[in-house]
Amino acid sequence: MESKKNNTNYTKGMFITLGILTLILIGMVRSCTSDSKKEKESGPVAEAPEPAAEEPAAAEPEQEEAPAINFEDYQKESEPDPKPAEAPEADDSALSMSERNALREAESYLNYQAFSRQGLIDQLSSEYGSQFPLADAEKAVSFLEENNMVDWNEQAYKGAVEYLNYQAFSRQGLIDQLSSDSGSQFTREEAEYGVKTLEDKGEVDWNEQAAKAAKEYLDYQSFSRDGLIDQLSSEHGSQFTREQAEYGVDSVGL
What we know:
Blueprint: H1 2-42, H2 71-78, H3 97-112, H4 117-125, H5 134-146, H6 152-164, H7 171-179, H8 188-200, H9 206-220, H10 225-233, H11 242-251
Helix pairs in contact: 3-5, 4-5, 6-8, 7-8, 9-11, 10-11
């Protein structure tokens, strides 16, 4: 009896196990079928587009080759211009000791003040100047001229500038001062050159000179309007033109 019960229980267990396995297989089949349907409904998966082929880069323009440098020419171009050669010193060996001393003194005078030819000779030989013998003074000045060490026209221009630095002059008055025997003793041509150079360089205004002269007169003497105009324009006065004299008087309020 117990043997039959055991067989019956074993058979029941087998059926139960088979039932469970069957259910598992059915579940797996349904799962596969469901996944297949989903794939069909969703349609084919779009493939990723292939990357576009890169266009070839534009060719860069060819650069011209720099010309070869000639280093010798480069060195010549980069070198500074040579300084102008200094003029050789004049040979004064033929001069006497006294003449050489007079020459050195003449050069010293010209370094700080303008002189005419005659004015320089007088300064070198005067008892109020350097007191060289007249012959030595003349020899020294001649040496300056012969060796192009002095330009009297340029000296006249410098002399004109010096006069205007401390006193007012008209055009004619300045020419007279430069050429007078009691003035600088330049020749008339040299004096005119000096004044003309002032004008050409724009370094003088004759109206302004008339105004300065008017003030200078009034600083030490009283004048009426007409009297001051006459003083400024007279041949015995400052020799300004009538128009320049009137401009000068107007500037001081007369």
